[in-house]
Amino acid sequence: SDPNCPSGVRSLQRTVDALYLDEDLLIVHADSLFECSISDFIEYAINKGTSCITRYYEKRMMVVQSSYALNVSSKDEVIDVLYKPFRSKTHWCIAPIYYVKRMDIPYISGKAIVDDDLGGLGNFVSWLCENENIYAYEMKGKKYEISNLNSYEKIKKEFEPAAFNTAKTSE
To answer: What would the pLDDT profile of 63-73 be if each residue is shown by its tens digit?
Structure first.
């Protein structure tokens, strides 16, 4: 790993420390888009009174097996998180939007210092779910994965207004 390019957890830790953040945090990964309401998720997390994550139903088992899969109770409480499970009994995956309560912020620094190889934020969320009572809000709507330039261009076209998708004519 490149020491000049810190992991997601290390980057978050540096941001929290540099800005003296001492309030609830909304963390959104930039590599996925969802058709959803962030305000509904924030309201859900505030009502639960704990840090919360988002989840989505993935029908393709091949995708579940390359993601963070999770089992949840009927009341949305996270039972366990499985990283790239070989055999999964669930189709729920962690979506890249998290609400971290102020009281859980010290875990960001603590876990990042204790385990320097923690890596991405998904690993931190997995660790948090194993150590705290966390709830998983169901994200409904379409998911768009931005994994390379081609997928970015495809998504960009889909979201551009129709006026920009037509050829311009000179006057």
So the answer is: 999 988 999 99
